[in-house]
Amino acid sequence: MASHWSNESVTVVTAVVYYRDDNKDLKHLSYALISDELSHDKGSIYVFNKALLDAVSKTISFKQVHYWSDGTSAQFKNRFNLASVLYHSLDFGTQATWSFFETAHGKGAVDGVGGAVKHAVWRAILQDRAVVNSAEEFARFAENECLTVKVLNIPKEDITQAKEQLLERWNACISIPETHSIHYVTKLSDTTVKARYMYRTCSSFLLLP
Description:
By secondary structure, this protein is of the alpha/beta class. The protein has one domain (2-173). It has six helices and eight strands; from the N terminus they run H-E-E-H-E-H-E-H-H-E-H-E-E-E. The protein has helices at residues 2-5, 42-57, 79-92, 109-126, 135-145, 156-172, and strands spanning 11-20, 26-35, 64-69, 95-100, 149-154, 182-187, 192-197, 203-206. Strands 3-4-6-7-8 form a five-stranded mixed sheet, with helices on one face. It has a three-stranded mixed sheet with strand order 1-2-5. Strand 1 (11-20) and strand 2 form a beta hairpin. Helix 4 crosses helix 5 (135-145). The chain is globular and about 55 Å long.
């Protein structure tokens, strides 16, 4: 009963990684990242991406990453997150590009992964097979209940530490005009990104001084 009515919350961020195997067949891996950090801001996204890439690299090898995400400004479509495209090779060892879905394009595979994970843990609680009082316990039961989903637990302390380390970088970032209209970003130089807008041709912008 305590677990059923608990007001404690956890962050559940999901990802589906598509890749081609040695036979060029399209494969995918599903991930759920669980954390007791509830801010869902630029620092969280940076740490979630790092944890995800570290986990993926243990399963497959890759030289290029292409992100697809929604366009929420608090998490993805902002100058701080776009700066990660510039630093991606330095921070994570691979080049990266980033595309954003249009608003109201419906649910996708990542929403299905999130729904499956939350439903599995909720069902275990209702059936008295689990008592969940923390993000760590949520992650443990999610891993046990969802065998096709790789579950990663991300402590709040890791995100706090990353925010402190990245503060100088973020303070140096320059805003891109009409950021809300961007649908694709790639690195052009060490200080510049090239962005494509929804209704006009691509442009280049200095992101760091």
